[in-house]
Amino acid sequence: MTKKIFLSIILMLNLALYGQQMPQSKQFLVNKASYIPAFTGLNGNIEGFMSYRLSWVGVEGAPKTAFFNINGAMTDKMGLGITFVNEQYGNFSSTFVIPTYAFHIPFSDNMSLSLAISPLYYKNQINFSKITSHGFQIDP
To answer: Which of 66, 82, 104, 131 has a 20 to 30 A CA-CA distance from 38?
Structure first.
């Protein structure tokens, strides 16, 4: 009986979840901190990455993404970074600002446990001046 109640609660919680697309980037091979905040400052260097992506060239309102990330090690156990993303698609515009703090616990020369906190500031806008109306039409 309790298993059925537990299962029904889990199903109800899943119905209340919402999803949102994060900006697309192909930098995850060289900039691991762009997808996994725990990589921030892990290699001990200061790294900066910048990219611009234009999808569907020649299509009006095609997605455009500008991406900037800088991260580095503050000490041998602590890393800081920040990411700025601006994405425009059609009448919509999204801005992301993601500061990151990472803490690294080394176990050996090539193994460590990394923990990170990465709050997200997200702003979504719609440009009403680009919206056009073709009048009221009834489809026969």
So the answer is: 66
